[in-house]
Specification:
By secondary structure, the protein is an alpha+beta fold. It folds into three domains: about 210 residues, no CATH class; about 100 residues, no CATH class; about 180 residues, no CATH class. The chain has twelve helices and 25 strands. It has a seven-stranded antiparallel β-sheet. Strands 3-25-4-23-24 form a five-stranded antiparallel β-sheet. Strands 11-12-15-13-14 form a five-stranded mixed β-sheet, with no helix packed on it. Helix 6 packs across helix 12. It is elongated.
Length: about 550
């Protein structure tokens, strides 16, 4: 027997260590695994390429992905899958979706996808197929035919005893002349060329009624018909909604279209013609196949086989432990993608893929640093005490005197000043003056801010925005106080704008000199020296409280 040297033992140990490390890496709680498994059907067998995912793993998600984000277009399986990759979302695997009509055949060669697709409660498409695999918030699976009923309602129709409008589909091409179809930007930029009427809806309101194809906007949808429709007018408030005969489907907000159900409740189904499959290629021919299924312990598998009939694929899925399984598109579409590489390369570009993604957990936020209450400057303390006594100081300011006042806190401080000075709530004041409290800025629901808008005290920052977290400056507060003087107390703030004329840095916006001048004359503020007002300096809470007290003193004479 040949003697084994010390060096030989060291090499063996090193190989064993490297080998064991590789096994640990491969088996370390990977969200997906893959295998090439010999599978049997009848007396025959083939090799299935399989990818498995544990749906119980937090962060794992199954979702439909559309090529280029637009139906009727195509891309490679890898390009479609990688669309959903983000800094926190890994694309683990993907398989081709269900059936579509490739360019050059049927429907004018328009790459129409057949079936239902829904992602996170938003329908991407309905029509052309009814079988889905649905996923709820806990990644539990439901398979079947949800048959969503789509209807569009208009505000006021119920009072006029008008029924909601039944919609045939979402983002499907027209089949018949009387169909009404809703189109979103998943379809494209305009409705189909054969549209006779397009009802354009933005933010829930009809904005256009077009005789012919119409535009589709991301903030709404467009209803199109192949007949002339005169039912809707610009300004109508409408919405569409979806209901189900089996209400449980509403709890499965992600739905993946399938071809045929091949296994249901651990039993093989062979009624493919009854499920809408009449093509000999599907019913009888052996061809490359793709499929998706789930086991009793909530393990999902996606896979391909090089050749099988649909009935044989059903037997394969059942032998893999499927409780429920669906056939996907096959032939040249059959393809499988794993971690950036093809396991089964596609023979053509696709319209839709089914992706398995993994969202990495968000980093734990750092522990908040405890706030150490600060003290107002000596010059501010006497007037802050008086402001506190009158009820002008907001709780959010106390102990944060040297912190900046943002525009939302400033609005609340101005409203407090109004209520204390007038002795009425802003609700009463708004009712007395007929203010429209429903006219809000787009970026805040704050009642205080809405009141200031209604009273003409604040015009916001443009584009119907208030910028509640934005910087609040010395000039901005004087403008609000000046408009408050005019619109609440009836004081002409422009009667004596003399004080502002001595400052060299008055802003150029309309009214700045008037309101700063008024505030100086009212002894609410003064300059900062050197002929400057320091208009754009950000106010601290101590400044806001002091100015509020001085304004209160001016308005009430107290």
């Amino acid at each position: 027997m040949k003697k084994i040297t010390r060096m030989t033992w060291m090499c063996i140990a090193l190989v064993m260590l490297i080998g064991s490390t590789a096994l640990l890496t491969a088996s370390a709680a990977a969200p997906v695994t893959n295998e090439a498994r010999k599978v049997s059907y009848g007396s025959s067998s083939t090799t299935a390429q399989l990818i498995w995912a544990d749906l119980s793993t937090p962060g794992v998600k199954v979702e439909p992905v559309v090529a280029n984000g637009k139906l009727l277009t195509t891309a490679s399986l890898s390009a479609i899958a990688e669309r959903v990759r983000t800094p926190r979302t890994e694309v683990l695997a993907a398989v081709n979706g269900a059936f579509f009509d490739p360019a050059g055949t049927g429907y004018g060669g328009s790459n129409v996808f057949f079936g239902i697709l829904e992602l996170n409660g938003e329908y991407i498409k309905t029509g052309g197929g009814t079988i889905v695999m649905g996923f709820n918030a806990e990644n539990k699976v439901k398979m079947g035919q949800p048959n969503p009923r789509i209807r569009m309602s208009r505000e006021g129709d119920a009072e006029r005893y008008r029924m909601p409008l039944d919609i045939w589909s979402i983002n499907h091409t027209f089949n018949n002349s009387d169909e009404k179809v809703i189109y979103t930007t998943y379809y494209g930029a305009t409705t189909p060329a054969e549209s006779k009427t397009s009802i354009v809806v933005r933010n829930g309101v009809v904005t256009q009624v077009v005789n012919g194809p119409g535009p589709i906007y991301s903030d709404g949808f467009t209803l199109a018909t192949r007949t002339t429709m005169t039912t809707y007018e610009v300004g109508d408030k409408v919405e569409y909604y979806i209901t189900y005969a089996d209400e449980e489907w509403a709890d499965y907000p992600t739905k993946i279209a399938g071809g045929q159900i091949i296994v249901e409740n651990s039993k093989i189904r062979t009624d493919y013609a009854e499920q809408g499959a009449n093509d000999v290629k599907i019913l009888q021919n052996s061809a490359p196949r793709s499929f998706i299924g789930v086991t009793a312990d909530n393990k999902l598998f996606i896979g391909t086989v090089p050749g099988a009939t649909v009935a044989q694929l059903a037997e394969i899925a059942l032998n893999l432990g499927a409780v429920n399984a669906m056939n996907l598109d096959g032939g040249a579409s059959s393809s499988l993608y794993l971690n950036g590489n093809y396991i089964t390369p596609p023979g053509r570009d696709l319209v839709v893929a089914v992706a398995i993604t993994y969202a990495t957990p968000a980093a734990e936020p750092p522990a908040p640093v405890p706030h150490v209450p600060d003290t107002a400057a000596g010059w501010a303390l006497p007037e802050i005490a008086l402001a506190t006594e009158k009820g002008l100081v907001l709780d959010e300011m106390v102990g944060y005197w040297t912190q900046p006042t943002n525009r939302l806190l400033a609005a609340e401080a101005i409203v407090r000043l109004i209520e204390v000075s007038v002795g009425k709530s802003i609700d009463v004041i708004a009712a007395e003056k007929g203010y429209d409290m429903g006219d809000k800025f787009a970026d805040t629901d704050s009642k205080a801010v809405t009141f200031l808008k209604a009273a003409g005290i604040s015009n916001g920052v443009g584009n119907n925005r208030y910028d509640p977290g934005g910087t609040y400056t010395r000039a901005a507060m004087m403008a609000m106080l000046g408009r408050m003087a005019e619109n609440v107390f009836g004081i002409d703030a422009g009667a004596a704008p003399l004080g502002s004329l001595t400052f060299s840095d008055i802003p150029s916006w309309e009214g700045a000199d008037k309101y700063i001048g008024w505030a100086v004359e009212a002894e609410i503020t003064g300059g900062v020296g050197g002929g400057r007002f320091d208009s754009n300096a950000q106010l601290q809470n101590q400044h806001t409280a002091v100015f509020a007290y001085r304004a209160y003193r001016y308005f009430t004479g107290a």
